[in-house]
Amino acid sequence: MSKKMPEGGLAEHAKSSCIQTLQPAMPLALEVLYVRNVVSADLQPKVAMMVDDIKAGFAELLREPTWMDNVTISLVLRALFDPDSVLRVWWTNATTQAFVQPAQGFVDQCATFCVPEGCLNGELTLGENIADNGGIKAAYKVAINNQNTDTLSSIESAHQEFEVSLPGFPDLSAEQMFFLSAGHIWCGSYRTDVQQLRLFNNVSSPPKYRVNGPLSNMPEFAEAFNCPLGSNMNPAKKISVW
Length: 242
Prior knowledge:
By secondary structure, this protein is mainly α. The chain folds into 2 domains: 38 residues; 183 residues, Collagenase (Catalytic Domain), CATH 3.40.390.10. Helix content is 55%, strand content 2%. The protein contains 11 helices and 2 strands. Strands 1-2 form a two-stranded antiparallel ribbon. Helix 6 runs antiparallel to helix 8 and helix 6 crosses helix 10. The radius of gyration is 21 Å and the shape is globular. Keywords: Hydrolase, Metal-binding, Metalloprotease, Protease, Zinc. Its cofactor is Zn(2+).
C-alpha cells in the first residue's frame, strides 16, 4: 500500500516539478523571483553592490592576460549576441590562437587530479575550471584588495580592516578566512558509482578539485598559509587564463 502524501505535499511536489522544468529554460527569471521573494529588501542593495564589486574585480583581471589583444578586451563585457539576437564570434583570430596555450595548461594540470574512481578529464571540465579559477580571483580582489570600504557590506569591510575572526579560530587572518570560506562551499561527497559517472559526463571537477585546483594556482593562498614552494598547494608552475 502506498503511503499517503502529507497534506500540502501534492502542491509542494507540483511546485518543485514546475521549478525543475523551468530552471534550464529560464534560469535568470527564476533567480530574480527568488531574490524578490526571499532576500529581504534591506539586503538587496548590499547584494547588488557585492555583484557590482565582483564585476569590477573581473574587469580588473582582464587587464592582466597577455594573450588577449586590446580589441578583444574591449568587447569582453559586452553581450555575446548582436541586436538581432544572433550569436557572434567576438574574439579576434589572434586572441583565439593565443588562448590555446593557457587553456592547454588547465587541461594538463587537470589530468594530474585524481580521485579513487579515476582521474579527471581536462578537456571535459576545461570551461568550468577556467571559470572557477577566474571567479575566485575576482572575489579575492573584492574581499581583500578593495580599499573603498564604503561600498562593501559590514562583514567585508571588517575583513578589509582585519578585525573579524571566526568563533574558535581567533588567529586566522582575513586572507585565511576568505580561503576557508571558499573551500567550505564545496564540502561534500558522492557515492562511488555516482562519482564514476560524474567523471565521464560532468563538466565540473569533483568538489575537492574545485577547491584545491584554483587555490593552488593562487600565490596569495600559498602566502596566506605558508605553503612551501613545490608543494601540492604551491606548485612552481601556476596556471592562469584570467
